[in-house]
Model the fold of this input.
Amino acid sequence: MKYLSLLFLCFYVSNSTAQKVTIVSDAKAPRIQFGTEKLAAILSEKGYSVTFSNRIPKRGNDKIIVIGEKGSANWKQNTAKFRIDDSKLTKKEGFQINTQKQTVLIEGMDASGALYGAMELVGRIKSSGKIPAEINIQDSPEMVLRGSCIGMQKTTYLEGRDVYEYPYTPETFPWFYDKKLWKEYLDMMVDNRLNSLYLWNGHPFASLVKLKDYPFALEVSEETFKKNEEIYKFLTEEANKRGIWVIQMFYNIIVSKPFAEHYKIKTQDRSRPITPEIADYTQKSIAAFIEKYPNVGLLVCLGEAINTVEEDVEWFTKTIIPGVKDGMKTLGRTDEPPIILRAHDTDAPMVMSKSLPLYKNLYTMHKYNGESLTTYTPRGPWGEIHKKLSSLNSIHISNVHILANLEPFRYGSPDFIQKTVKAMHSEHGANALHLYPQSSYWDWPYTADKTDKRLLEIDRDWIWYKAWSRYAWDSKRDRGQEIQFWDKQLADKFGTDLEAGTNILKAYEEAGEIAPKTLRRFGITEGNRQTLLLGMFESQLVNPAKWRVYPGFHESCGPVGELLLEYAKKEWNHEAHVGETPVQIISEITQHGKLAVAAIDKAEAKVTQDKEEFLRLKNDMHCYKAFADFFSEKVKAALLVLRYSYSNDIADLDKAIPHLEKSIEYYQELVNLTKDSYLYANSMQTAQRRIPIGGDDGNNKTWAELLPHYDRELVNFKRNLVLLKSSKDGKIEKKEVKAWKTAEVTLLNATTASYAVKNGTKVYGTPISEIVKVAPELQNLKGIALDETMQNEKGTQLKFKNSKAVKLVVGYFNSDQKRFLLPPSLETDAAGNAYGQAEVILASAMNLKELPRVNIHTYTFQPGENELNLGKGRVLILGFIDANQTISPRDVGFIDEGEKGAVDWLFY
Done:
């Protein structure tokens, strides 16, 4: 029966009155054949009868489409009788299409160009329903690489493993083995002319290659290993058909868990020196990978698990590059496979200067706005890194990374995105794009939407991929024409007229300004330790230094302007304001929210298709408005509290209360809008996320969880205000602060001396290191005496044995000078909270005579033999305390003369 049905179909098509089309192409060229198949499919859908040939027919009146690569034998053979001017077809992946009588000629500068030319014609036929009677166009991309990434990572750590350590297994990544999903994703990429796919993972090699010298290092079963070989081969072949280069990313230095267990070491240790075993294992892993997957690129992240830039250079030049060369030698290759160097947590210009004499085919990559999207006017020290790297005349890639401030709501502002891509060219000199998913990177392929069936990120965030890829191809498109283009795209998607499409676009673009503007003016960091759309505490607004503002963030990720503390000070002193101000921003974001909601609500009546998705989009616009209103009220309250720090007028604090109360009302609205629509706000659900509050064990990831914290903040403020009013001198009598309960440990270091943590002690034995102020919490501690020269040259190592859980008290100098060890930074060290050390427990807690003030962090250790290795630079090891006691974080307030004391105590 099936055979008869097919026979009937063939008979019907061959004898129908459908217009016949012959597609002429090179059957041996995979990318051209893929384009041919896509053309045939749309032509059949539109009622054409399609035949295929390697050669152009000699006669007949049928429509002919010729697809080929400039200069190829097949193209020359089939176009000899046509007059073709392809002198301007010179750029990689470029194409031209023109008609000559009944023939459409699609010529690509290369195979990818021919493919894109075919896809261009597919789009025009799909839109008009027929082959264009006349067409004469030429096109080529501005950006050389245009890629998207997928994280082979999870929302939480696997048991017994650290950050980024996720072997490729069906249990951990069932979607990785779904060939149908891969084809859908790759089709999305080729539809958007994306030509590179990045897979991010900590240490992928132990899932993809076996090593003769390290057979024990494989960390998947034989059955899984075979599945990985099969799916990786499938993926690379399918990607190649679509003109897509697969690139495997990895972090350094991470080794497989079986390898680590064999040598009794950690899988990753930032302070560990490079050892011969680790270097040899990694070099051979890379060599085996290059040999097995010669068409797969490598993206190297030297950051997060190597301690110094000098070691970065050593690792890149003596392990990674030699590994690639070893793989080339085995294959008998002389051409250099491309290696992409990620600038994160390293001195990329220095690494490149040492590496280019050894290996020429190097690319560079750097984050655009860090791990968020904040501005299309980048500047500052981060911008200088881009400029240095792009000046090397290699391909420099701008990485739109993580998007911690956009999760989880829909984002799709073509205007913001187009301006951003223009800035990548003009401000940074980048000529390639690397694009993260708009949301739910750690939970890919799903979104955070609470639906009966999980939504796929590529489906929900279609406009994200389409906008970035459209402007990566050509950023100079006319704004008026772009508005018309997106109006039609949105009208088609939701089955509306163009007026409603215009309103949906307006909603996207108004809402698209809210999160970027808010974070760049008020945020602590652009990194994923802050989830912006969950809000911020008043203490984070009025005393951001306590929460460790990431260096360079505000100078790099937005236009010139003032931060909240600067604005309050200028207001009090009646000084002129400069640039973008906090008051300006809260006015703008509330107006953006109002306009976005009005536009989306107006469009609703015209929606005739995909109504459920439209309602989810509408809900997101209302969420953005509620967030903007909530945040603006918090800022208004913060400004009044900061004014009080100058005026000492309690009336200023009274005026803050209505704003805080109103902020709670708006946040309740946000809770109501999200409780049935979202599973979470942030897809990274670990202790790495600290702001507005810690995300330990997957907690505090929803608005409903955060609301009680904001309620408590208001209660505390009102209570402290009552106490302030009832005090005789306008000051609250501070509670007595008790010294922390110390704990006994057995030090295992060869020589260790101790000192009393009290005024008069010279911690380094020098006059300038004399303690002159110390928080009462620290006064029973016994610090461990260390040699400052050894700390600067070799770092700080401490071994000890403890029978009970303890916290090690560590003092970090508040300075970015190289001679002082920088405090834990989750922006550059994902394992920076492995011992609970990321947060400042006591801010401005110690003053030494002529050294920077000291902030206190604590590291928690369970019973047993323990070891702590810290990097190079001076740091104070102040002793051990009982881990089970309650300790309250606070700003002790030992500040320099002329500085303003923090007022965040009002909220505790």
About this structure: The two ends are 78 Å apart (CA to CA). Confidence is low (pLDDT under 50) at residues 1-15.
